[in-house]
Design goal:
Layout (H helix, E strand, L loop, with lengths): L1 H6 L5 H13 L21 H14 L6
């Protein structure tokens, strides 16, 4: 941070000061949620091959429940 601040041209310091002061007045933003999805899908070995058929059945109303 010190090196970054030292690299800011003196003419830009007032704008940077405003940004920093404004960030102190607001609560810290929450960190974005991260979702782990590794290993959460268990399906038949040919699911990827059949996915177009599955989607087609869903859009035409010919799904397994029909």
């Amino acid at each position: 941070m010190h090196r970054l601040l030292d690299a800011v041209p003196e003419t830009r310091l007032p704008a940077l000061e405003q940004i920093l002061r404004a960030s102190l007045d607001r609560p810290m933003p929450a960190a974005p949620r991260q979702f782990a999805s590794t290993g959460t899908l268990s399906a038949e070995h040919d699911l990827a091959e059949r996915s177009e058929d599955i989607l087609r059945d869903d859009t035409t109303g010919g799904g397994a429940g029909a």
